[in-house]
Amino acid sequence: MDEKLKALADYFAAALPGAVTSSEIRHGELACRIEPGALLRVLGFLRDDRRCRFTVLCDICGVDYPDRARRFDVVYNLLSMSLNQRIRLKLETDEETPVASAVGLFSCAGWWEREAWDLFGIYFNDNPDLRRILTDYGFEGHPLRKDFPLTGYVELKYDEDQKRVVYEPVKLKQEFRSFDFLSPWEGMDKILPGDEKASAPDEVPPAGAPGTAP
Questions:
Q1: What region, left, alpha or beta, does residue 173 occupy, with left being phi > 0 and alpha being psi -120 to 50 degrees?
Q2: pLDDT at 62
Q3: 60 beta partners
Q4: Most confidently predicted of 79-83, 136-140, 187-191
Q5: What gap in Å lies between CA 150 and CA 153, rounded to an integer?
Q6: Which pLDDT score, from 0 to 100, does residue 154 have?
Q7: Are 19 and 38 contacting, i.e. CB atoms less than 8 angstroms apart?
Q8: What is each CA distance from 106 to 36, 118, 140, 172, in whole angstroms?
């Protein structure tokens, strides 16, 4: 299988010089990183070429790397049913630079692009209906960005006086805890295998010592 995928990667890169910047095969899957400006040319080739025939766009999603200058990866997963092969395309963009919409090549791309816009704030140029799809129209921010607060900015409630749903700033009942996620068993009196935070338990005090149960 890897030999077939490598042959596909070589053929793909040779047919579109300059469009593919790198490719790798991992866990039996081919992933290619492409130049953002070549996206529509690449998608059209993969869909129409007789040796590719990737006619099904399964998904478009975003990935956030906030420490990078171009913080977002936009990922396209395609399927060739006739050849029983898959390919994953990745390109980089930022908060200001739009990505070309794939709706003209795959009509289903409209839904995926709306989701990526809603959750990450990735803008798709020429999408005919780029609006929120999973959050409410009045939602503030993009909730799958790594710098989006866990609590969000606002909360919803039904107002009995106004007889409608209203937004209010988030009000926490207590100070928000900080979690380090290293040990769910912190505080136990024994060490568990793989618990990198654990230290040797204190010596058990003799019966009748202060603070011990009778």
A1: alpha
A2: 97
A3: 76
A4: 79-83
A5: 9
A6: 79
A7: yes
A8: 17, 20, 29, 44
User: Is the separation of the CB atoms in 34 and 90 below 8 Å?
Assistant: yes
Region of residue 90 (phi > 0: left; psi between -120 and 50: alpha; otherwise: beta) = beta
Per-residue pLDDT reduced to its tens digit, 187-207: 556 666 665 555 555 555 555
CA distances from 201 to 195, 196, 197 (A): 13, 14, 12
- The residue among 136 and 160 whose pLDDT is bigger is 160
Q: Determine the pLDDT at residue 107.
A: 95
pLDDT value at residue 28: 86
Here the tokens at position 148 are 């989006």
β-pair type (85-93, 29-34): parallel
- 3-state SS record for the chain: CHHHHHHHHHHHHHHCCCCEEEEEEECCEEEEEECHHHHHHHHHHHHHCCCCCCCEEEEEEEEECCCCCCCEEEEEEEEECCCCEEEEEEEEECCCCCEECCCCCCCCHHHHHHHHHHHHCCCEECCCCCCCCCCCCCCCCCCCCCCCCCCCCEEEEEECCCCEEEEEECCCCCCCCCCCCCCCCCCCCCCCCCCCCCCCCCCCCCCCCCCCCC
130: which 2 tokens? 């780029």
User: What is the rounded average pLDDT of the residues 172-199?
Assistant: 59
